[in-house]
Amino acid sequence: xxxxxxxxxxxxxxxxxxxxxxxxxxxxxxxxxxxxxxxxxxxxxxxxxxxxxxxxxxxxxxxxxxxxxxxxxxxxxxxxxxxxxxxxxxxxxxxxxxxxxxxxxxxxxxxxxxxxxxxxxxxxxxxxxxxxxxxxxxxxxxxxxxxxxxxxxxxxxxxxxxxxxxxxxxxxxxxxxxxxxxxxxxxxxxxxxxxxxxxxxxxxxxxxxxxxxxxxxxxxxxx
Amino acid sequence: xxxxxxxxxxxxxxxxxxxxxxxxxxxxxxxxxxxxxxxxxxxxxxxxxxxxxxxxxxxxxxxxxxxxxxxxxxxxxxxxxxxxxxxxxxxxxxxxxxxxxxxxxxxxxxxxxxxxxxxxxxxxx
Lengths: 223, 125
Prior knowledge:
Chain A is mainly alpha-helical and 223 residues long. Chain A contains 8 helices and no strands.
């Protein structure tokens, strides 16, 4: 029970993620078969649909943009600040900060992660592990989007009696960039909204907000 | 991370793993039937929608196919398979096929390229 309570945030999002991706699979499958029937083609099974390039491109185009959003947010907030926003650090802390502030090397304590207590490549890797992981997942899911997208796009082109295109032609096509940019713009707007609205608005009890009584000008304070 | 690598591989498989031999055989069989004037058999290899659209009123599919006088297909030059769709280029023709539950069927034949526009086909759905 204690474990459930201590992990309730991750668990709630995990359950909602599974329900949403399951719902997407079922809705996408019904939609796909509706089009199949209209075109005189045979309907496919749910398993065939979830292993199709159509489903893969729809999933990965959203994933890549989410991981890009977090990658940019993590990296930009090292160097850029927003006065008054709890999402930003204070302007005098711009940059990678001192070893003391970051509790690394000789400033690490007995509770610090092992790789925070060493020096060299392992420390560099661990110091950048969150950004690197988000960045790598973004690149992999964007690559997956391009591969699945090419397959789905070529299937559609062949169905329209047109020649298929190469991967190189696909990743420079309006179709690929339309799929990518329509997701990026919404993610960037969401981050912008969070950074700016949290200067003036509050959510009592949420660490994503400043304390209700905190001044609009106070930066880097979480409630 | 592992899920993404698997997903990338699956996505690649979704596009590339299809067997190009089956649609190539279907295209060759279709042209062999046309060349042997077995038009009924050739009509039986068409997608249902294509076969339904081919004849004029009062005409059978076989009669309509015979009238078109499709040229010889020739050897397979290249095959592209993406999902349930395929394009087979023969020396003398380009065909588009769709995979149905009973196998590959001809959606369009006697096709000529029109730059990046859809091919102009003698037989199509």
